[in-house]
Amino acid sequence: MKLIVAGSTGFVATELIRQALSHPAVTSIIALGRREAPTPANAGPNAAKFQSVICDNFENYSESVRQKLAGADACVWTIAVTPSQLKTMTWEQICTICRDYAIRGIETMSELDRDRKTSKPFRFIYISGANSVRDPAKRPWVLGDYCVLRGEAESRILAYAQQSNGKVDARIAKPGLIEAEGKTGVLVNVAKTIGRTLIGLPKVHVREISATLLDQAVNGFQKDTLLNEDLVKIGQRVLQTQQ
Ligand SMILES: NC(=O)c1ccc[n+]([C@@H]2O[C@H](COP(=O)([O-])OP(=O)(O)OC[C@H]3O[C@@H](n4cnc5c(N)ncnc54)[C@H](OP(=O)(O)O)[C@@H]3O)[C@@H](O)[C@H]2O)c1
User: What is the pLDDT of residues 124-173, one digit of tens each?
Assistant: First the structure.
């Protein structure tokens, strides 16, 4: 299968690409981003599966980018502004990146040429967050506007897929804090612990969420929304079978 990883230079995408490289069902990985993604270290002969594709306009894909995405079977969408970056841009920019890019992404990818022999829908997974809400009335007191925005993106992506007459199948992943060894400094870890206590965020390891997303992209979806506990459970099961 041909897999698109959008936001290919990011934290989750880097681990997802690492795992996808050694997955026997994945024959091609398109690392889609606004800048070049390096060929993963230790990729060995699997490096041939990997192609970095730079997109300079996520609201209007160029013909050459469309051609490189054509024939893909699935996309894991990781592009977003994370809470720690919110203060660095305007609210309009945040809405564009977190919501509009993803909606334009699913629209564009679902319109591309695919192998007509396959009756399977194009699979699109949008990574959101555990605290995002689809009902604005449930706006949380911490990061309220951001959580409502991410929830709106979730609803619009699911609605687009539902109205696609089986052309696209979309799913939402809602992780809490994504952890990795050595990812952050002590201060950030302290802030995270406080944040988790205040907001009650659950945790998932980056290996677990990546294994889950890859499994769902390859084998199809179990539920339309994967909560943190699902991401942990499926990921641990998949990783155990690989030991
Ligand atoms: N990390 C966590 O603990 C956590 C927890 C819950 C949910 N999530 C969600 O999981 C997803 C992935 O998170 P992550 O931690 O992997 O994020 P990340 O490391 O910040 O990666 C984000 C990706 O989005 C790209 N991006 C950002 N702004 C862009 C723009 N204006 N145009 C094009 N690309 C842009 C980045 O490209 P550059 O490298 O060029 O900046 C990068 O490839 C996000 O939806 C996030 O909200 C993360």
Answer: 999 999 999 999 999 999 999 999 999 999 999 999 999 999 999 999 99
DSSP lists the bridge partners of residue 129 as none
Label residue 92 left, alpha or beta by phi (over 0 means left) and psi (-120 to 50 means alpha). Answer: alpha
Out of 18, 128, 178, 179, mutate this one to test ligand 1's pocket (max ligand atoms within 8 Å of CB): namely 178
Extents of the domains making up the chain? 2-178+204-241
Q: Is the dihedral of CA 197, 188, 42, 26 positive or negative?
A: positive
CA neighbor of 106 nearest in space, from 72, 62, 63, 150: 72
Q: Give the tens place of pLDDT for each residue, 104-129.
A: 999 999 999 776 666 789 999 999 99
Tokens (6 digits) for 60: 């209007």
Confidence of residue 76 (pLDDT cuts 50, 70, 90): very high
Show the ligand 1 pocket: residues with CB < 6 angstroms: 7-13, 33-35, 58, 78-82, 97, 127, 129, 175, 177-178
For domain 2-178+204-241, the CATH architecture is 3-Layer(aba) Sandwich (3.40)
